[in-house]
Amino acid sequence: MIQEFYTYNKKELLSNPKIPLIVMEDNQSIFQSMAKEMVDEIERKNSLNETTVFICPVGPVGQYPYFVHMVNENNISLKNVWFINMDEYLDDKKEWIDKDHKLSFRGFMDRNVYSKIKPELVMSQEQRIFPDPENTSYIPELIEKLGGVDIAFGGIGINGHVAFNEPMEELSGEEFLQLKTRVLEIAEETRAVNSIGDLNGALDAMPKYCVTVGINEISNARKIRLGCFRDWHRAVVRQAAYGEKSAHFPVSLLQGHKDINIKFSEFIANLKD
């Protein structure tokens, strides 16, 4: 049976969501807004001489050109900023794929973010964190040491995953929320969708494994900001905002977080005729 919320028009969608929803003109507006929130938080924390800690995605990525421009244009120091990236693909040995691999998130951040920021502004290498399959306890311990995550940025997968926290039907919502950084097998639907976006549909070339920060680290961030920008996000946004809390659709477990929102475009808000 098709859930009624999948058919909600824009007015119905915005009427009573369980996660606050923000409709913006287009994808560029979403990315600009995400970049500005990153910069504003860094400037606020810098003014207090405090550390800024973000959980950051590689998908969405449209915010990074705006972020880099703002940082360089306004000479914003990142010396007291930590970027904890959400995840990375692994090879069949469950080791990081090579940084030069087209799909490598580590390579993406080096090429498109860190190397484009003025050297005198960019944070040190040790503050550019990726989950390590050989040391999965490092990120939870680091977050505790740093005093928590200020903002977790991210997107939502077609099956409701945030980072690579894939659905686990056998767990209760409470059990799922306890999951921390770990290695796991990527769901088939995730591999299929990502292969279309990243490899022209070459499903067999997609990695089968990943390492990801846990939903626990994300859910405990002081703020959570999610962006949706693909055609199929029409259904995802509606299920995130109106579906029942369940490990079947992990983003639903973030309903009730004290400071969360999902930003998406008018295109996503309005269903096809």
UniProtKB/TrEMBL annotation:
InterPro entries: GlcN6P_deaminase-like, Glucosamine6P_isomerase_CS, NagB/RpiA_transferase-like. GO terms for biological process: N-acetylglucosamine metabolic process. Coiled coil: none annotated. PANTHER family: GLUCOSAMINE-6-PHOSPHATE DEAMINASE-LIKE PROTEIN BT_0258-RELATED, GLUCOSAMINE-6-PHOSPHATE ISOMERASE. It comes from the Bacteria. The lineage of its organism: Bacteria, Bacillati, Bacillota, Clostridia, Lachnospirales. This is Glucosamine-6-phosphate deaminase. GO terms for molecular function: glucosamine-6-phosphate deaminase activity.
